[in-house]
Amino acid sequence: MELRGRQFYNQHLDDIAIFSKDWLEAVISTTMCPVNKLENEDSCFVIENGEFSCVAVADGLGGHKGGGLASRLAISILNETLNIYEASPQSERLPIREVILDAINQSHVEIQALGIGAGTTLTMAILTRKTVRFFNVGDSCSMLIGGMGTLKFKNIEQSPVGYGLEGGFLTEDQVVGHAASGIVLNALGLSPLRIEVSQEFELARRDSILLSSDGLTDNLAYSRIGEIVGRGTILEKIRRLKQEATEQMGKEKGKPDDLTMILLKVRDI
Hints:
The protein is an alpha+beta fold. The chain has 7 helices and 13 strands. The strands form 2 sheets. Strands 1, 4, 5, 6, 7, 10 and 11 form a 7-stranded antiparallel beta sheet that branches. A 6-stranded antiparallel beta sheet has the order 2-3-13-12-8-9. The mean pLDDT is 93.
């Protein structure tokens, strides 16, 4: 049995894709850089099996050969691993957290085996009807945002700008347009590999989960992202995020880049 969901490998979508099943509502936007229109190096998926959902965004490293291939490989390995998990007898299943960590490590090894210096960041989440846990490698971002737009959690981006913001050496306003934007300190395919794993968070009514490539966070401050996610329908929110991030890319302090976002809501909490 295969998991239900949507996968996008290096695609450019003109409009928002929708995935809605039972307890889960998700909207997906993935677009290539408005300046270098050669290939969208991002890949992503949303899948669910009725009990849990897995969502992931991989951002192939620009400036490295094979960035698009690396993101595609990471997402396809995760997808294949979860399909094998779904098809296996329940009595033989390992905890899903261990399965995900093994799949991330396998992706890292296979990207390295390409032998071309390729790499990709990865941010992903495992959701149940009541909880969410995040996994992160690199500077793609995962956020848990409350109903009023309050940022309840975000991962630490593994980049000079991300550490500067987390350590209080940079403000949100200084991050957008910073000269070091785009420099990443960790990625699948590059050694040594570091994986950030969050605690398991209990979801509250009106919580939203947002995963994105750095095309979003290099162009919009977290406070602005929270404001947008705190109001409107799920479609209105992702369209506004896409519009404002894309507009910022064309400004003096903007950073043109591929942009992939997945915004999720859990129904009936």
